[in-house]
Amino acid sequence: MSITAPERTASAPGRGPGRRLQRYLLWPARNLWRSLTSMRIALALLFLLAIAAVPGALLPQRDLNATKTSQYIADNGTVGEVLDNLQMFEVFSSIWFTSIYALLFISLVGCLTPRIADHARSLRARPVAAPRNLARLPRHEVRETHGTPEQIADTIGQGLRGWRTTVRTVEKPTPDGGSLTVVEVSAEKGYLREFGNLVFHFSLLALLVAIAAGKMFGYEGTRILAADGQEGLCNTSTAVYDSFRAGNLVDGTNLNEFCIRVEAFDASYLETGQPDMYTATLQYQSGTEIRNNEWNQRALKVNDPLRVAGDRVYLLGHGFAPTFTVTFPDGRTRTQTVPFQPDELQTMMSSGAARFDTPAGLYPDEDERRKNQIAVEGLFAPTAVFDGGLMTSAWPIPDNPAVAIDIYQGDTGLDTGRPQNVYSLNVDMINQGRLLKLERVNLLAGQDTRLADGTTVRFDGYQRWVSLQVSHDPAQKWVLVASITMLGGLLVSLLIKRRRVWARITPQEGRESPRCTVDMAGLARTDQAGWGENFPDMVDALLSQSVPTDAHPTQPRRPL
After folding, report:
1. What's the pLDDT tens digit per position in 33-91?
2. Residue 19 and residue 23: Cα distance in Å, rounded?
3. Taking the CA of residue 51 as centre, how many other CA atoms within 13 Å lie in the half-sphere pointing to its CB?
4. What are the φ and ψ backbone dihedral angles of 328, each rounded to 5 degrees?
């Protein structure tokens, strides 16, 4: 006789598609959510976010200085290319940094939301009843005092003002088969500690949101202006900036309307040549002042921005802009004042380049015209010192300005329409022989040199230039508010101590006057809780009497 197993059907328990859906999708998703929203993961993500920001501080970032970033990649070869592929030069907009940021946001929201509900329930709940054995708690004292249990409980309650207290009456059996009425007092305080903790974390969450909003709706633009009172900047378009970085939700239109110009610049130095203070005299106008041509004046210093029309204008740096005049063979001239980049901040030795196109009609043939363009590349020294024909700068203050320049003739690349480095000539043009070096010369202010075809190049002097940054961050105030609130919540969570006190009042039988034994204990989230050796004093103060001679602590007093 054979026994066959019962036929399994698709509807057997644990084998249906619903069960498989729970096992392979719902349960893993639930476990993943629980892990992501734990405080441990939130702290790990916050620490990981701090580590991820380190490359953004150590490596040049493309959105801040594209030229320096390209030069860094070129100098480091394969390593630079690998770092570029890993988005190390665009850290704060990279996929991996944004992912950490988003996960931290989700983790904080999921972690804090249940804690709000728990804290709300704890605020409505009564203090917990006294434990069965109070002697096991870290702080424990026993006293004997006169009065009924109700009177003593009322005295303790009055002494615990500011605490949340509740009184319970418990009937306990006696050995003779009767019952004894015992009064228990439960008190708690320090609920603000958890409230401060929640405020701190939600302020951190608000800080992350404000920073993200500022990045999405904000923009930054930099521009170099000559400090001559003539060249100006009007914040009407992104085209007026040398470099412009906009948030993801900024299209470059509807910028805050204002205009600025630099009247003068002054730099003071220490005896060692280190800069002491930079001050630019700025004129600005906004709103109706632009239509009425009214100007306001202000001194702009480092870390002291101008706030105008909701934007901030920072002074980033300064330098010198030599002025060159090229006189072509037909007598017509071209003059340019071009900014040179400081190479040595202690002496302000600077380098740069200038390009001059030929006057209209001088060379009717286009190819001939490109072969006769003039380019100048070299160094500028504020206080020039010549040693064997080599020029150096001895001091950042312009006491003896001079230039050491190479003069080129040929195709400068002005007709290509391609962007070029403002501080150097195109090396490819030089290597291909399209731009020929004709002369190397040192010139003081007012001196010139003549080329073979009669063209002269004169160094006329210099102008100061300053680098300004216009920054717009609509969430800046919210970042400040979130930071202050976060600090306040942190202080509350650190200074407020969560404590619990219980008193069990047991009447003594067989006495003429009412007398009770008071068993008191204290417990804190931290063992310290600010009590130290003062817990017995607190018990005495609550009972409004000195310690009787027959008091007997059940265990030695412990320091907090």
Report:
1. 777 778 788 888 888 988 988 988 888 888 777 767 887 888 888 888 899 899 998 88
2. 6
3. 8
4. -80, 170
Nearest to 342 by CA among 423, 254, 278, 415: 423
How far is the C-alpha of 214 from the C-alpha of 247, rounded, in Å? 8
- Domains in the chain, please, with CATH? 24-123 (no CATH), 127-190+497-543 (3.30.310), 205-317+470-488 (no CATH), 318-465 (no CATH)
Instruction: Based on DSSP, count helices (H) and strands (E) in the chain, helices before strands.
Output: 13, 23
Residue with tokens 């026993």: 142
Residue 533 DSSP label: G
Q: What is the pLDDT of residue 557?
A: 38
- What integer pLDDT is reported at residue 268 of this predicted model? 84
What does the DSSP 8-state code read for residue 22? I
| Strand segments (E) across 241-397 | 243-246, 258-269, 275-286, 296-301, 306-308, 311-327, 333-337, 341-344, 349-356, 373-381, 384-387, 390-393
Report the pLDDT value the prediction gives residue 532, as an integer from 0 to 100: 62
> What's phi and psi for 22, nearest 5 deg?
-65, -45
Beta carbons of 381 and 393 less than 8 angstroms apart = yes
391's CB contacts (< 8 A; 6+ apart) are 379, 381, 384, 385, 402, 404, 442
The token duo for 456 is 């002269």
What confidence tier does 540 reach under pLDDT thresholds 50, 70, 90? confident
Measured distance between the N- and C-terminal CA atoms of the chain, rounded to whole angstroms? 79
DSSP line for 219-271? EEEEEEEETTSS-EEETT-GGGSSEEEE-TT--S-SPPPEEEEEEEEEEEE-T
Is residue 2 helix, strand or coil?
coil
Q: How far is CA 466 from CA 280, 463, 499, in A?
A: 8, 10, 60
Q: Note the pTM of the prediction, 2 decimals.
A: 0.67
Q: Return the amino acid letter for 488.
A: G
Q: Which token pair is 64?
A: 């801040």
409-462: pLDDT as tens digits: 999 988 777 777 888 898 888 998 899 999 999 999 999 999 999 999 999 999
Q: Which residues pair with 296 in a beta bridge?
A: 284
* Burial (0-12, 13-18, 19+ Cβ within 10 Å), 484: exposed
Question: Does residue 546 carry a pLDDT above 60?
Answer: no
Contact present, 438 and 408 (Cβ < 8 Å): yes
131-173 per-position pLDDT tens digit: 988 988 888 899 988 888 888 999 898 888 888 899 999 888 8
